[in-house]
User: Fold these one by one.
Assistant:
Number 1:
Amino acid sequence: GQNIDQPTEMTATEGAIVQINCTYQTSGFNGLFWYQQHAGEAPTFLSYNVLDGLEEKGRFSSFLSRSKGYSYLLLKELQMKDSASYLCAVSRDYKLSFGAGTTVTVRA
Amino acid sequence: DAGVIQSPRHEVTEMGQEVTLRCKPISGHNSLFWYRQTMMRGLELLIYFNNNVPIDDSGMPEDRFSAKMPNASFSTLKIQPSEPRDSAVYFCASSPTGATGNTIYFGEGSWLTVV
């Protein structure tokens, strides 16, 4: 199986940094994705990691350690529009399995 | 470019009725996924098609659910008979090569309420 664990909720202040951790257990790992989902909308792709290390894309960065079954999504210079659910997803056998999501609330 | 197109966007139906959800994947994508999202269970993969062939339907909850992909540009998810516990958002997603290194793109979802 692929137990995917991430915190349920996080709150941060506008302009701050927030790190969302994700741990997983799976065999046949093909990669790890992060998606953003605003309330009432579809998930949208944020990042993809298949090798160990940090991938940076603007204000968002994602890190992967395959040996530890661990990833994090780093959101910098938080904006109000970043308030959303962030979903960690593990690719295995060409399928994506999603964690329950972390709801991030950005406060002024 | 048009994204994944789903219909209907919203449906309210009575228990026992048949529900058919439709999906048009992104042109050129050869993998198609049906997901269901609820507050209690999050996003669950129901079925995965590759080149119109069902590869994994282990997530389909029970015999009341069925999915077809008669051609590369169309898929349906059918629930018959529907029950209140089927109320959820049903997402269709597509990908050019499955989920290995290529992003899967979600449609806007079909919001189903069974009363």
Note: The first strand of chain A starts at residue 4 and ends at 5.
Number 2:
Amino acid sequence: GNSVTQMEGPVTLSEEAFLTINCTYTATGYPSLFWYVQYPGEGLQLLLKATKADDKGSNKGFEATYRKETTSFHLEKGSVQVSDSAVYFCALSVGGFSNTGKLIFGQGTTLQVKP
Amino acid sequence: NAGVTQTPKFQVLKTGQSMTLQCAQDMNHNSMYWYRQDPGMGLRLIYYSASEGTTDKGEVPNGYNVSRLNKREFSLRLESAAPSQTSVYFCASIADVSSYNEQFFGPGTRLTVL
């Protein structure tokens, strides 16, 4: 079946540190991959996406590359800020004729950035 | 343009009580979804509606029913609440499933069942 696995959290970093949150997936067909972010007390917001192999999604200094050979979509940022503290979810959507837009989420990784 | 709205924001129920969670979107989206969020488990799909007039079960549908009242509204009903349904519930919508556009989420309903 389809599934997403994220690295365990919480991740605690100092401001301006480099961030990597690992995400690997299992999917039939050719999934699209997403990173969503949830700030405290809010719903999820799309951070970035990639719809085919080797695509790089980027937004607000965050990047992730769709690696089909390693079935991965790791999230990176060169210099985190306190305002990046949130929960990050990796997700996939499997397309094709049966596509219904359903998202399959990883368990989420909490990031805490200290000043 | 309010996006996706959910009511109520918080609710406490006793075991066996019933309630309906309301969701509405003003973006003219075709598809709508209900997820639950539990610690360490991410979000899991309860039910979805690919288009007005259709609904289908997701990963964890037991104990829930849904109604796609019209294109804007998609409600989730708990007929007899159980403590295992204590969770945060999110409604989401998407304009067009074929183009992998952004799925928009509401702010959530935090439900506690005692």
Note: The longest strand of chain B covers residues 87-94.
Number 3:
Amino acid sequence: GNSVTQMEGPVTLSEEAFLTINCTYTATGYPSLFWYVQYPGEGLQLLLKATKADDKGSNKGFEATYRKETTSFHLEKGSVQVSDSAVYFCALSEGGTYKYIFGTGTRLKVLA
Amino acid sequence: NAGVTQTPKFQVLKTGQSMTLQCAQDMNHNSMYWYRQDPGMGLRLIYYSASEGTTDKGEVPNGYNVSRLNKREFSLRLESAAPSQTSVYFCASSRDGLKGYEQYFGPGTRLTVT
């Protein structure tokens, strides 16, 4: 079946460091891919998305590229801030079903 | 434009009590979802509603019932709460889940069953 695998956290970085959170997926079709962010005590917010191979999603300095050849959608940011501390979820929707598959989340902590 | 709203934000129940979690969206979305979030397990789908008038089971439906009251509202009912249902519950909506549009989430309900 479809699945999403994220790197385990927590990830702890100093402010202005480079961030990568790995995400790989398995899917039988051509899924849409998403990154969501969850701040403490809040619901998930869409961070970025990509709907086809080689698409790059970007928002608030975060980027992720849909790589079909490696079935990956890694999240990157060039310079993290303390305010980026949150839990990040990778997710996919294959379309043709109503279901979305989420990774288990990666907690990021950024130190000043 | 409030997006997705959920009530209540917090609830404590005793084993065997019942309650209904309310969810409403004002984005004219067709598809709505209920998830539970437990530590280390990500999000698990309880029930979903593809469109007004339809509901379907997700990954963990046991112990829950749902009602799609109209296009805006989708409620989740616990008939006889159990400690295993202690969790954070999120409602979400999507313009059209069949086409893979992104989901929008409510702020969550933190439920404790003692």
Note: The longest strand of chain B covers residues 87-94.
Number 4:
Amino acid sequence: EAQVTQNPRYLITVTGKKLTVTCSQNMNHEYMSWYRQDPGLGLRQIYYSMNVEVTDKGDVPEGYKVSRKEKRNFPLILESPSPNQTSLYFCASTSAGVESAQYFGPGTRLTVT
Amino acid sequence: AQSVTQLGSHVSVSEGALVLLRCNYSSSVPPYLFWYVQYPNQGLQLLLKYTSAATLVKGINGFEAEFKKSETSFHLTKPSAHMSDAAEYFCAVTYFSGNTPLVFGKGTRLSVIA
């Protein structure tokens, strides 16, 4: 079954404690991205990756890092989380070509206190 | 640059009534347009997409959308609302298939009243 998985699904942490949210896809897609969803703001792209070792900033990259060492994995790293990073995070994987579509993970709800 | 405007952050319809969710886009090149649905506590699911083929696009769950270049619109419709359609709906635009980012609208929450 084609899917995008994220872990953890829920996380409560404290300001400044480094954390990583993992994302993995089994569809051999080259393009992956991270979004955050906030009420009234829709989804905003944090970072994206067009292939292994190729990453670039999206609309709201401040306070986040990513890496793409393997095609299937695209972890999101918060080196020093702050309360304004409390949000719902989605990883997405995109198929290429005319029939492209983004496949979204189930989401990670992060609370930073 | 691409952008999307969804008119109405909250739309409420009666069960059995027409659903109309509005989306207008801005793009300097021919767009690819998408509608996604998000049910409570779930991720996003693709409803339908326009990729420069037929202007009337049919999706899942009885939804369809029509691409109107002259109006720069891609409104989502369903003839008869069902209680299970209650969710948040997002319109999104990109300009190339595959490896380009999607730009999302802010979403429209659809409520269905019995």
Note: Chain A has a mean pLDDT of 92.
